[in-house]
Amino acid sequence: MAESFTLSPRGLALASQPSFRAFATPVLQNLYDRTNSPNGNINMGAAENYPMLQSVADFTNSRVKATPNSFSYDEGAWGSLRLRAAMARHMNRFFEPVEEIKPDDLLVANGCMSLCEMLGFSIFSPGHGILLSRPCYSAFESDFGTRAGVKCVYASFNSEDQFSPNGAVKGYEQALEQAESEGTKIRALLLCHPHNPLGQCYPAETLIELMRFCNQRGIHLISDEIYALSTYEINDPNAAPTVPFRSILTIPNIVSHIDPALLHVLYGMSKDLAAGGLRIGTFYTRNSELWRCLSAMNQFHWVPGPADAIATAMLEDEAWIDGFIAQSRQKLGETSALAREMLREKGIPFWEGSRAGFFLWVDLRAWLVKMGKQDPWAAERAINDAFAKAGVYLTSGESMRAEEAGWFRIVTSFDEETLKRGMGRVFKALGI
Ligand SMILES: Cc1ncc(COP(=O)(O)O)c(C=O)c1O
């Protein structure tokens, strides 16, 4: 093994892995701006609620007053009581859980990413596995893997519906059996509900079956509900009916399905409240041991005082929040509809069931053969390179562990001009 004069072996391992920073910096430091940088890159990979960012900035500029306490250590690393009380009220109002969420049921840290990292450290030993669905939000791999050494184990569903009770359990069960037969102990299942990148919600029956499955296997069930309120409607009379979002905490009599010590919910302000830069993530658990464990690490994932003050002000202003969420949903529906129309015009299929999140899961399998490569994943990479050359960035199916090559996640939550221009670059790269 290589050695370093300056680093420990684990430091060297981190320094030697492919650097996302090295890849992302040239892209992110030359971003598209209609007036100042029209030839810059359009980042249709990062899932942000772009149309709503201005409202958050306006609210902060006009309504938030910093106090001396905002710049002190104040109440400590766990998120102020006011923030946790406001977040608990927000979740009670919108999630309508069977059992009321109390401020002390919530841990607050600088983003769900950090919470996943802390969970990786708390629930798993290095080499243990976490079950995830294919396709999957790609950053879980680094959130759980980079420092905690947790292995992501992906369930395939083949032609089964992963949102149906049987399809879901079958897929996760097979993945668990396979991993454990190869020596990887599974400790948890993480469900993206609504799903990223498919934009679909799980019906209550599936949530119940997954709770039972996790309980039987003695593994944790973490429901990542970060897109809970980013649901929208599509004005299409031919569209199949879709399942509305319902938090896992609304299932009656949870104790009859799962030991409450195994059930947890992630939520945050990065998506529904268009504040990814605020770095506010929250974790609901009734597991007091896990709560104490995460609390012991919280000082390494402290929410800064000014961010705590802004988040508290936003959440406490319920009238503003109501208007904001309604407007966000409206815009998500509009931008998604526009993107769907543009894709249909070009004959590009996409996952029709999406009604949540900021993206569409787009099927470019027909373009693979045009890339002149034997290996379909190499062909997918060639399409990705063509996008980069055209100044547009999408998330590839390979990075989202898709079951099959040729799929891409495309973020649609932009203003109309940027969305049209970005889609134009996508079509140009595809030669259409
Ligand atoms: C499903 C999911 N979970 C967690 C995160 C991370 O959120 P945060 O900004 O709170 O770290 C994201 C961000 O894209 C996400 O899509």
Structure write-up:
- With 432 residues, this protein is an alpha/beta fold.
- It has 2 domains: 156 residues, Aspartate Aminotransferase, domain 1, CATH 3.90.1150.10; 246 residues, 3-Layer(aba) Sandwich (Aspartate Aminotransferase, domain 2).
- Helix content is 40%, strand content 12%.
- It is built from 13 helices and 12 strands.
- The protein has a 7-stranded mixed sheet, sandwiched between helices.
- Helix 6 links the parallel strand 3 and strand 4.
- Helix 7 packs parallel to helix 8, helix 11 runs parallel beside helix 13 and helix 12 crosses helix 13.
- It starts with 8 loop residues before the first helix and ends with a helix.
- InterPro entries: Aminotransferase_I/II_large, Ethylene_sulfur-biosynth, NHTrfase_class1_PyrdxlP-BS, PyrdxlP-dep_Trfase, PyrdxlP-dep_Trfase_major, PyrdxlP-dep_Trfase_small.
- Pfam families: Aminotran_1_2 (PF00155).
- This is Aminotransferase class I/classII large domain-containing protein.
- GO terms for molecular function: pyridoxal phosphate binding; transaminase activity.
List the helices and strands and how they pair.
Blueprint: H1 9-16, H2 20-28, E1 42-43, H3 53-63, H4 81-95, E2 106-109, H5 112-123, E3 129-133, H6 140-145, E4 151-155, H7 165-181, E5 186-192, H8 204-217, E6 220-224, E7 263-268, E8 281-285, H9 288-297, H10 305-316, H11 318-345, E9 359-363, H12 376-389, E10 392-393, E11 395-396, E12 407-411, H13 416-430
The structure holds pyridoxal-5'-phosphate.
Pyridoxal-5'-phosphate binds next to helix 5.
Q: By helix and strand content, what is the structural category?
A: alpha/beta
What binds here, in terms of ligands, is:
pyridoxal-5'-phosphate
Report helical residue fraction.
25-40%
Helix-strand pattern, N to C? HHEHHEHEHEHEHEEEHHHEHEEEH
Q: Specify the CATH class of the largest domain.
A: Alpha Beta
Tell me the span between the first and last alpha carbons.
49 Å
Hey, roughly how much beta strand do the residues contain?
5-15%
Q: Give the count of helical stretches.
A: 13
Looking at CATH, the homologous superfamily of the largest domain is Type I PLP-dependent aspartate aminotransferase-like (Major domain)
> What's the shape?
globular
